[in-house]
Specification:
The termini are far apart. The protein is built from three helices and six strands; from the N terminus they run ααββαββββ. A six-stranded antiparallel sheet has the order 1-2-4-5-6-3. It is globular.
């Protein structure tokens, strides 16, 4: 059993909006935890709070391979889900939870095991729902897959909102 803490339900605790520097620190901590991001080899590269995007590198574990030796499609979806969801989390200053409601992926090229790059973009963030898109590229720079997604935006009480 893993000793890595699982984030508590955001509705049950108060959070505060983080600065870009604090967001960068939080993102760098993700790779040290025993979550799916570790299996996928997640490494944040850059992000923009103002423009609502996040880029990351992935270096998936060989256990993410399909029978042909490339990255299995569900794992590609997981990588896209990670960058798309985080684009909303970053745009909202790391003060929201964003469970995925729907994900559509188009696979355009095989994705070999090894380092690849992905980008998630928050297209529209409403009070309770957000819309995102994502792209993942092969190491050679070809688009391996594109996705669109919808997530719920869970907005907890902010620590500076008072009681």
């Amino acid at each position: 059993m893993s000793k890595t803490p699982v984030p508590a339900d955001l509705a049950k605790r108060k959070v505060r909006r983080l600065t870009p520097e604090e967001i960068r620190e939080q993102l760098s901590n993700v790779v040290r935890l025993e979550h799916a991001a570790g299996l996928l080899g997640f490494k944040p590269l850059d992000f923009s709070v103002e423009d609502g995007w996040l880029e990351a590198e992935f270096d998936p574990d060989p256990r993410c391979a399909n029978l042909r030796g490339g990255v299995q499609g569900g794992m590609i979806c997981a990588m896209l889900d990670e960058v798309m969801s985080l684009s909303v989390v970053v745009a909202e200053h790391y003060a929201v939870g964003v469970p995925t409601l729907e994900l559509k992926t188009s696979f355009l090229n095989a994705l070999p095991l090894g380092k690849c790059r992905a980008r998630g973009q928050a297209l529209r963030i409403g009070r309770n729902i957000a819309f995102m898109e994502g792209t993942i590229w092969t190491p050679e720079g070809e688009i391996a897959a594109k996705a669109t997604s919808t997530c719920q935006v869970r907005r907890p009480k902010l620590a500076d909102d008072g009681e």
